[in-house]
Design brief:
single chain; 266 residues; alpha/beta; Rossmann fold; seven-stranded parallel β-sheet; two-stranded parallel sheet; 9 strands; 49% helix
Length: 266
């Protein structure tokens, strides 16, 4: 991949799409700041990428469900004036329904999926605007359009999609690109952590993380804000949004056997 950006900061970089972004950007010669809770994983990845590609890789341990860590990372971003790519990738799937949540999971999801991307993006934009170039990728999901993915997960991912669209309009003419990546089912440890049984979903619905990230990074060369990788995912998103099929999707989403197949919690 051709080098597009000099320095990138990636949240949720210790696994999944975040780790894949780090690998592909490092291969293109991009210096990195890797952010996640698990510092040991970050340090191992940083050492590997530095040795293999000769790029500078900095590690920043943070739990973005905590306000203090969000603000500390925002300050780090403000001090990094040469940052020209921010990837808001950190996220989690949740393990309970909203009305059964007694652990504060909903509030944590709001901080990770909504508050952190907004605060970190605002911290990054002044320097990008001053230089007249830069990009922000907000990792949303096809779940942003889905009635099958949980009240909090779908709604917070929908925020990321609409935030990206409206922010790109605000930044028109300033040289900044904003993308909302909306992947479907992707082979990462995300679903295992969320307690979902991947085996109930046919294999042809799944994509590999490296392909998803390649599509995302290539799309930065264009002006498309909503990026849905894979033909199947684009069809699924269309059916969930189309007025002619929306009622059917809503009806199916309320069927217990459909919810079970989708891995939804009782």
């Amino acid at each position: 991949m051709k080098k597009l950006y000099g320095k990138a900061l990636i949240t949720g970089a210790s696994a999944g799409l975040g780790e894949e972004y780090a690998r592909q950007l490092a291969a293109a010669g991009t210096n990195l700041i890797l952010v996640a809770r698990r510092k040991d994983r970050l340090e191992n990845l940083a050492a590997e990428l530095t040795a293999k590609y000769g790029v500078s890789v900095e590690v920043f341990a943070a739990d973005l469900s905590r306000d203090y860590d969000i603000n500390s990372l925002a300050e780090k971003i403000r001090q990094t004036e040469d940052l020209d790519l921010l990837i808001n990738n950190a996220g989690f799937g949740g393990k309970s329904r909203f009305y059964k949540d007694e652990t504060g999971e909903a509030e944590q999801m709001i901080r990770v999926h909504v508050t952190a991307p907004a605060v970190l993006t605002r911290a990054a934009l002044p320097a990008m605007i001053k230089r007249g170039r830069g990009a922000v990728i907000n990792v949303s999901s096809v779940a942003a359009f889905s009635p099958l993915s949980g009240a909090m997960y779908s709604s917070t991912k929908a925020f990321l999609a609409m935030f990206s669209i409206n922010l790109q309009n605000e930044l028109y003419g300033k040289g900044i690109k904003v993308q909302a990546l909306c992947p479907g089912l992707t082979h990462t440890e995300f679903h295992q952590v969320a307690g979902m049984n991947k085996e109930v979903i046919p294999g042809f619905f799944w994509m590999k993380a490296d392909r998803v990230v390649r599509i995302s990074l290539r799309a930065l060369a264009g002006n498309k804000v909503i990026v849905i990788p894979g033909c199947r995912n684009r069809i699924i998103a269309f059916l969930m949004r189309c007025p002619w099929t929306f009622s059917l999707v809503q009806w199916l989403s309320r069927r217990s056997w459909v919810r079970k197949r989708a891995g939804m919690k009782k």
